[in-house]
Design brief:
With 478 residues, the chain is α+β, with helices and mostly antiparallel strands. It is built from 12 helices and 7 strands. Helix 1 (2-58) packs antiparallel against helix 2 (67-89) and helix 1 (2-58) packs antiparallel against helix 4 (125-198). 69% of the residues lie in helices and 9% in strands.
Length: 478
């Protein structure tokens, strides 16, 4: 994620630097161009002033003009001829080439009349004024054109950098907007994935499913974390299973002891009355021994099936009431020892869900054992399957024990939190139950009041009718 962000920031900074360089180059170019135009304007302005000075002396032709004034006029005419070459080379007035040639002719004629006047010849003032007016009109035209160019250059200096800045700022805002949107998407992805993992859903993150192809590193990190958490979760589940086995073993010992006593008594009677019994009686006693062995073996095998580590969950179509009845067989001795009355309410029709059989057994065993332990002086344990939602199967485990306060309810699913005394609980039982239920796409709810008992409601998605009927037909065929 950081690598992708770093690359995008480098691209944005690079574009910003390039834009600033372009803007600076445009500004420098515009400044130099404006400087050239301004220099031309100064030269043309000087040219215009020389024309005006020349015409100022021209007015003296009406009266008697002094020889000194004629010399000054010749000086200004020479200045105009010199300045005319600069005006000719200017790009501003390049399109007035014909006018410049005409101006040069007018200026030459004007100079000739001035020389004639200096040499004592009479010159018509109206002719001088006519040529002077033509010189002035050309000067005004060139000056006006140069002013237009000055305005254009000035506008270019102001508009071009402003346009570049506007485009750069707009592009930068768009780039930052896309970068922000992409970052917010990643944050949303991280948040939702973290929440999913916290709820016990350890499915690997797939780039094709999420669509976040930009940052593969974060997906890889999440998958590595999910794999490790899943492994740790399986270890915790197994440890809780073994802890439950320890509790179940004390009750199962009583159940195994009865068939062992029957086997012992039957074997002793068979030994003592050997030769005195008929073959039919001996066969009946041997069948009794075999029956009791089978009974004890079944009890032990149920316990072994529950305690055995199965590694990853194997999801298949399972019938809820069958799982519940199997669970009750495992804990019936704890129920009798704790002097607890059992009540069951199961529907007539089968309720199919998709789940891992051993994990579901562990959920119900943990909930039932917790309910039994909450009634140390006896009480009623109710196990029922109810229809709260059409597409869900809900199993309620209810006890008439001491109940829990709202403060305790808020913490019961937190790992290592327990209300039991030291040595009697690790605080992992309900957190494991919560994780297993989440893996089954279900949810668990709890309602309790102090001194009024507690009810845990576990809900799982119900299999569609078509799938459950297909499962039933397969079982019937088998």
């Amino acid at each position: 994620m950081m690598e992708g962000l770093r690359k995008k920031l480098i691209v944005v900074c690079g574009l910003a630097a390039i834009s600033l360089v372009i803007q600076l180059a445009a500004y420098i170019y515009g400044t130099y161009e404006f400087q050239d135009d301004f220099t031309n304007l100064q030269e043309i302005h000087t040219f215009m002033e020389n024309v005006l000075e020349l015409r100022r002396y021209e007015k003296n032709f009406v009266y008697e003009i002094a020889p000194g004034d004629l010399n000054e006029m010749l000086v200004f005419i020479d200045k105009l001829q010199t300045g005319l070459e600069s005006v000719r080379q200017s790009s501003v007035v390049g399109k007035y080439e014909d006018d410049i040639d005409q101006f040069q002719k007018y200026l030459s004629t004007y100079k000739q009349y001035t020389l004639d006047a200096k040499n004592g010849h009479e010159v018509d003032p109206d002719i001088m004024r006519e040529y002077g007016q033509k010189l002035l009109l050309f000067s005004k035209k060139v000056l006006a054109q140069n002013q237009v160019y000055i305005h254009r250059s000035l506008k270019k200096i102001l508009v071009v950098p402003a346009t570049v800045m506007f485009l750069f700022s707009g592009g930068l805002i768009v780039a930052l907007l896309f970068l922000t949107i992409a970052t917010l998407k990643q944050i949303k992805f991280v948040t939702s994935t973290t929440r999913r993992i916290a709820q016990g859903d350890f499915r690997p993150v797939s780039p094709s499913e999420t669509g976040y192809h930009t940052y593969p590193m974060i997906i890889k990190a999440f998958n590595r974390m999910i794999k490790e958490l899943d492994y740790r979760h399986e270890q915790i589940v197994q440890s809780r299973k073994l802890a439950a086995v320890g509790i179940l073993a004390s009750g199962i010992a009583h159940e195994v002891n009865n068939p062992l006593n029957n086997i012992s008594l039957t074997a002793e009677a068979l030994l003592e009355e050997k030769g005195l019994l008929s073959p039919e009686d001996e066969k009946e006693m041997i069948l009794d021994i075999i029956s009791e062995v089978s009974r004890a073996s079944k009890v032990v095998n149920n316990l072994l099936d529950f305690s055995r580590a199965h590694g990853k969950m194997f999801f298949e179509q399972v019938e809820v009431t069958t799982i519940l009845r199997t669970t009750l067989k495992l804990i019936r001795n704890q129920i009798m020892i704790a002097k607890v009355t059992l009540k069951t309410v199961f529907p007539d029709q089968e309720c199919w869900i998709k789940g891992d059989v051993d994990s579901l057994k562990q959920v119900f065993i943990n909930l039932c054992l917790n309910a039994i332990q909450a009634m140390p002086s006896g009480g009623t344990l109710s196990l029922s399957v109810v229809d709260r939602q059409e597409d869900m199967v809900t199993i309620e485990v209810e006890d008439t024990g001491a109940g829990m306060s709202p403060e305790v309810i808020e913490k019961i699913f937190v790992p290592f939190y327990t209300t039991k005394s030291t040595g009697q609980g690790t605080g992992l039982g309900l957190s494991v139950v919560y994780g297993i239920v989440q893996k089954h796409r279900g949810f668990i709810e709890v309602s309790s009041n102090v001194e009024q008992g507690t009810t845990f409601a576990v809900s799982f998605p119900r299999l569609p009718q078509s799938e459950s009927e297909e499962k039933e037909s397969i079982n019937d065929a088998a």
